[in-house]
Automatic annotation (TrEMBL):
Cofactors: Zn(2+)
Role this protein plays: Single strand-specific metallo-endoribonuclease involved in late-stage 70S ribosome quality control and in maturation of the 3' terminus of the 16S rRNA.
Family in the record: Belongs to the endoribonuclease YbeY family.
Enzyme superclass (EC): hydrolase
Protein name: Endoribonuclease YbeY
Subcellular location: Cytoplasm
UniProt entry tagged with the keyword Transport: no
Binding residues for Zn(2+): H124, H128, H134
Source domain of life: Bacteria
Entry keywords, A to Z: Cytoplasm, Endonuclease, Hydrolase, Metal-binding, Nuclease, Ribosome biogenesis, rRNA processing, Zinc
Amino acid sequence: MTTQRKITVEVTNETNEVLEPILNDQIVKVIERVLDSENIDVDCEVSVLFVDNPRIQALNSEYRHKDVETDVLSFPQYDSIKDDGFMEDYLYLGDIVISLEKARAQAHDFGHTFERELLYLIVHSVLHLLGYDHMVDEAKGEMRQKEKEIFKQIEVFKTSN
């Protein structure tokens, strides 16, 4: 899908970890791919915040009442874009918070690169921002299938699997 859509991605890194500048470009491309998969062709904005484990644990406790570290939190602006067909000229999709510590540990545990894990978490989170969920088996299957379809389209994953 070729679109004239403009995607604004605000990336903030609250950690001391220095990320490769090319990663920001990859994040935007991955977000574009997810939006393409949902036929969203209006201008969009997403905020991505990188934090450490204590910070994401505090956010998880505050907003989800779960006092544990997690890899990623998604804060959608809308209940569901995918189900409601909600469409305007401009969409602020919401906020994504990723623990770089947790992402690095998971990459090691799963035997793939840190970059792959980080970009997977972006795909996963943007799908949440669009209304996908994995709390029940049927919805989980739909979300996992969508993730797989998107991954097949992203070159960075073709070389790391």
